[in-house]
Design brief:
The protein has three helices and eight strands, in the order αβαββββββαβ. By secondary structure, the protein is α+β, with helices and mostly antiparallel strands. The strands form two sheets. Strands 4, 5, 6, 7 and 8 form a five-stranded antiparallel sheet that branches. The chain has a three-stranded antiparallel sheet with strand order 1-3-2, covered by helices on one side. The longest helix is centred in the N-terminal third of the chain and has 14 residues. The radius of gyration is 15 Å and the shape is globular.
Amino acid sequence: MPVTDPISDMFTRIRNAIRVQAPAVEMPASKAKVAIAELLRNEGFISSFETRALGSPEQRMRIVLKYGSKGEHVIQGLKRISKPGLRVYRPSKKVPRVYNGMGVAIVSTSRGLMTDRQARKSNLGGEVVAEVW
């Protein structure tokens, strides 16, 4: 069954896996999803991810979720901001801060996907894809 918004599908799969304390979640892969997973890993929200057969019809991605020492999940919230029906664009000066820097906004710029801090530092605006805290 085709998905109209694959990034929202990715976030929903991650949220559902966190709710049931699953160690990992598997989903169809794409370049955008791999870039988002890379940002989440670099920011410390997930442990790791791996892709299989990227570029083929059977492309899959497995994300290993991160939990604290007492079993608390590292990702407290994951929210899609810009949706297919309503795109949200911000200039570099108005890129949102998530919980005063405790979270991360994922921004799609002309230089690729980056965090809100990287976008402000590079003086780049763009489409605000999601917020993670």
